[in-house]
Amino acid sequence: MSTPTPGPSEELGAFLRAHRELLKPADVGLTATPRRRTPGLRREEVASLSGVGLAWYTWLEQGRVTASRQVLTSVARALRLDAAGLRHAMRLAGYHEPAGSGGAPEGLAATVRPVLDSWPASPAVLLDRHFDLLAWNTPWSALWGSPESVPADRRNLMWLMVADPRLRTVLHDWEPLAMNIFQHFRAQAGPALSDPRTGEVYARLEEDAPELRHWWGCHSVAELTARTVTVRPAGSAPMTLSLSSFHPVDDPSALILLFTPTTEEDRTRMLALTERPLRAVEGQGGERAAG
After folding, report:
1. 261-285 confidence digits (pLDDT tens)
2. Same-domain pairing of 143 and 206
3. In which order are the strands placed within the sheet that holds 133-136?
4. Residues 216, 184, 133, 213: what is their CA dihedral angle, to the nearest 10 degrees?
5. Measuring CA to CA, which residue among 136, 131, 196 is closest to residue 157?
6. Residues 162, 128 share a domain
7. Does 253 reside within a domain?
8. Within this chain, do residues 112 and 85 fall inside the same structural domain, yes or no?
9. 80 three-class SS
10. If residue 134 lies in a helix (H) or strand (E), which one and from where to where?
11. For the HTH cro/C1-type domain, which residue ranges apply (predicted)?
């Protein structure tokens, strides 16, 4: 039986509390006394630094009140949140929600799929706000395996990163990228954290990768950073790919991931890998015709 997913207000409170407990008094110019037992800052210290009352700040951490943009900015400043942390806090409070998040995923997939197909040597995928896979190109399937072979309720990037054996085998040093994906999901998801689909994804992760539950239970956030990854597909020499990401204009809550070969040699190998399944299909068709 899955644990209910907290609502946005509770998520905001837990997020603020986690960062309060990480700070040391010296980080904000306070002096710690030998008798101090509280890990991190006290609530009254954050309230004082933010210019709000102690009772109100306590209620904020408990998810019982909402904060204005201005007050939440002051709290974030007191907690030394970076840009990603402030953006995440704002979204949890209901601000800066991306436009177009209610659009039909089928329409978005149909619009973006020709863009994905325009990269014949670069694996690319379209994700919705829950990181479910909406569309992908042939190089993506050739490298990581076809998402259609994964049950629909597990066709999610977070699940693939931690529970799909092929991806973890092909992607060398997969853990830093996987952790970054979880952090980025939390940073940009906002109210999607309380959607039933998010709870379903977390339940599948709990079933299939319980040893990593601290990843999706963590309150850390970060942007998905550009990076170079090494992949080692079966039957192919290793390749280096450069990861980039961007949002479709039609739905800024969605995300496109693109893995671009870094050298001409990598591009040639990626093309050969992409053409391999096509040749196999053509060969099967020839055998059937001959029979």
Report:
1. 999 999 999 999 998 765 543 444 4
2. yes
3. 133-136, 124-127, 255-261, 239-246, 227-231
4. -10
5. 131
6. yes
7. yes
8. no
9. coil
10. strand 133-136
11. 15-86
